[in-house]
């Protein structure tokens, strides 16, 4: 459902990250398909059968992805890291700058925009990663263990940001071991023995 925060829980090795990668179009399933219902350009299509070029376009315009390890470019500032997806899809320099500044401000990092990843704490790096995932205005944000490497207080702030994102209408799907994050979700799904089910 649009605007929902969905937590996928399960033991290590149960396939949570693999499922997120398939749903986001980062990997293709070995069998079956992945049908879209939201993305206007791709509505009703099986992502697993899209040509690579169209799949790349789907990822660029319809989804955001937050990686557990942050996935930031070390030599770029926070601002430049957030601008990167906009640069790739051809947004003008001025518009990139404006949208990146808004995205960083929305996660409380406006004053840290010029800092490089090594100058930021783990929680700040994760917030940069979230801002980067949001900057293109995706319909769905996928987050793989977004609180996995963070202390309890910092994890709580990330959970609050993810809740706010979903409350503003963006669907957020997370794979997590974090019981606090799972409890904050609108819906929990459990990955067990390769099957996704309601607990």
Question: Descriptors for this entry?
Answer:
ABC_transporter-like_ATP-bd; 40% helix; transmembrane transporter activity; alpha/beta; ATP-binding; 199 residues; globular; 6 strands
Layout of secondary structure:
Layout: E1 5-9, H1 16-23, H2 52-62, E2 63-66, H3 78-88, H4 93-106, H5 122-134, E3 140-144, H6 152-167, E4 171-175, H7 179-184, E5 187-192, E6 195-197
Parallel strand pairs: 1-4, 1-5, 2-3, 3-4
Antiparallel strand pairs: 5-6
Molecular structure report:
39% of the residues are buried. It is globular and about 45 Å long. It has seven helices and six strands; from the N terminus they run E-H-H-E-H-H-H-E-H-E-H-E-E. The model has no long low-confidence stretch (mean pLDDT 89). It has helices at residues 16-23, 52-62, 78-88, 93-106, 122-134, 152-167, 179-184, and strands at residues 5-9, 63-66, 140-144, 171-175, 187-192, 195-197. The two termini are 18 Å apart. With 199 residues, the protein is of the alpha/beta class. A hairpin with a 2-residue loop joins strand 5 and strand 6. Strands 2-3-4-1-5-6 form a six-stranded mixed β-sheet.
